[in-house]
Specification:
This protein has 151 residues and is mainly alpha-helical. Helices cover 63% and strands 5% of the residues.
């Protein structure tokens, strides 16, 4: 059984290492911005205030763009939420903090939920920063992928 687990861990590392490495470059920014507001609103010119347009931090947009290019996107993320019975941000954070490499579907599901839902409702991306889920995902994934004594 241990040999089978080791093969699974090796396969997962080989499959997703470059994706996690790509997103890990945002770690320091995520640590700095986690819990903060990363959006502002553009009201237009003084005499033409018709609608507020959200403006997102450029690094957040780069993170989302890079995440969308990875193999970490799972369009069926809703199934992950039902399988793990995720109902709240607290559930997401708790599960991520205790996840192992074999739980890659959990990481992919939660990341995909925020990134893909954000494509139609950009406030979801800012929510992922404010509630700390992007940071927690990246902390745990980088710890599992780049340290040998965690998994």
């Amino acid at each position: 059984m241990a040999e089978q687990d080791e093969r699974l861990s090796t396969r997962i590392r080989n499959e997703y290492m470059s994706d996690v490495e790509l997103l890990s470059k945002y770690m320091s920014w995520l640590e700095k911005k986690s819990g903060q507001q990363v959006e502002s609103f553009y009201d237009g010119e003084e005499d033409q205030k018709l609608i507020q347009i959200p403006v997102y931090d450029s690094t957040l947009l780069a993170f989302v763009k890079d995440a969308r290019k990875t193999g970490l996107m799972d369009r069926n993320y809703r199934y992950v939420y039902s399988r793990y019975k995720i109902k709240s941000v607290e559930d997401e954070l708790r599960l991520v903090r205790h996840a192992h490499l074999k739980d890659m579907d959990l990481f992919k599901g939660i990341l995909s939920s925020y990134v893909l839902r954000g494509q139609t409702k950009g406030a979801v991306w800012a929510e992922g920063i404010k509630n700390g889920i992007f940071l927690e995902l990246m902390r745990r994934m980088t710890a599992l992928f780049f340290a040998t004594n965690i998994d």
